[in-house]
Amino acid sequence: MPYRPAVLVALLALAAGTFLFRFTGPVLRSRLTFPPQAERLLNTAAIVLLGALVASSALATGHHIGGVARPMGVLVGGVLAYRKVPFLVIVAAAAAVTAVLRLLSVP
Fold it and tell me: Which residue in 5, 22, 58, 71 is deepest, having the highest Cβ count within 10 Å?
């Protein structure tokens, strides 16, 4: 399927913008300094954002509550991660808990 020139130009512009945006991080990191309080705030914000992403993807399916099986799998994965279990074991255990609960017809 041939693309119109405007679509190709937009695609190339987005690709170049994405590359430049990602390239400037490492380049400017050595030139910019943040106060220690701002560094702590940014670290905390990243953790909160990751937690919100995990919660929303674990609890919701589309616009509805996802049931019990998926959050239980995430809970098992979180407990194992807290106990510093290897990553592959965490993923396998979380998937197994979710699969078993769904096999038992737990929503």
Answer: 58
In this prediction the pTM is: 0.58
**HEC profile of 14-47:** HHHHHHHHHHHHHHHHCCCCCCHHHHHHHHHHHH
**Residue 105 falls in which region: left (phi positive, over 0), alpha (psi -120 to 50) or beta:** left
pLDDT in tens, 26-58: 888 888 888 999 989 989 999 999 989 988 888
**Tell me, what's the pLDDT at 1?**
57
Alpha-carbon gap, residue 88 to 94, rounded angstroms: 10
CA dist., res. 87 & res. 81, Å (int):
8
